[in-house]
Design brief:
321 residues; alpha/beta; seven-stranded mixed beta sheet; five-stranded parallel beta sheet; elongated; binds NADP nicotinamide-adenine-dinucleotide phosphate
Amino acid sequence: MQAEIRTETKKPETKRRFDVIIIGAGPAGYTAAIYTSRAKRDTLLLSGVLPGGQLMLTTEVENYPGFSGGVFGPELMMSMKKQAERMGTTIIDDEVVNVDFKHKPFKVLTYSEEYEANAVIICTGANPRKIGAKGEQEFSAKGVSYCATCDGPFFKNQDIVVAGGGDSAMEEATFLTKFGKTIHIVHRRDNLKASKVMQERALNNQKIKFHWNKVVEEIIGNEKVNQIIIKDVITNEKETLNVGALFVAIGHEPNTKLFKDQIELDDQGYIVLKDHTKTSVDGVFAAGDVHDHRYRQVVTAAGFGCMAAIDVDKYLSENKK
Ligand code: NAP
């Protein structure tokens, strides 16, 4: 009789020490991973709860170079992920819950494990603030957008609402006049927070109509947005605007809560960069919307990811331990 062959299944040892840990899996994170892995740096990418970042919530991206017919956001992100894996990046879908940048090697703690590395790249991005109106979630990417540069061209010859009174709202509204018929700026006060020059540009544009002391109450549509109900905050009177889109431009919130006691942030919570992609902590770098509130494009985030990876490679060469 043949002896029974028993194989003991041992849980594989989790590898915990890397050259570089990248936190966040949007265009900045994946691009950084492609570059550090290709430079033969042992790279861990922790992708958090929404791998792919904001692009997983968009439909078509028309302005990322190299895709003449456009590309779907999730498809672009999956392709970047595959490219990072092909270069050798270890990708783990786990959320970072704590970091220790006070001592080296740096420690990054997730829900299930603790990892170490001599360099970290923060690519946690920023989320657009939500307006909180009824229907906002339901019509997201179906007429409700948070980026005019990304989605404006989809609403040619339509009436459009832009919510907000800051520079972003003025900029988005002015940009949207290239495509839309009438752009309705809905602002909760009777004066603007935006800088003088941006205000004047919007106020002097014949295609822009201001609705003062109004808030967006409800978004209505079938498959796509076709009406927005706005409410006067003084009289409570409601008005219905027949429009094809709502662009919410009421600011962004960078995902930096985890880092607030560890690295320098500005008064809006964005990471302050000291020299190109270096943060206030030697060995910790940042890339993408987490520090950039000016450009906020897929291509610029990817570009910053590349820069951070090159800076990390140089840093690790100069700080061998
Ligand atoms: P922001 O300056 O914080 O302005 C946000 C606007 O949205 C404010 O008018 C605010 O109303 C309104 N708002 C906030 N929460 C709201 C809510 N729940 N419901 C309705 N309205 C709400 O944000 P931002 O315009 O995105 O600008 C952020 C930073 O980027 C600023 O420093 C800005 O100068 C800069 N930026 C610069 C440029 C440029 O120079 N080209 C372009 C864009 C942004 P209140 O006025 O009542 O507070």
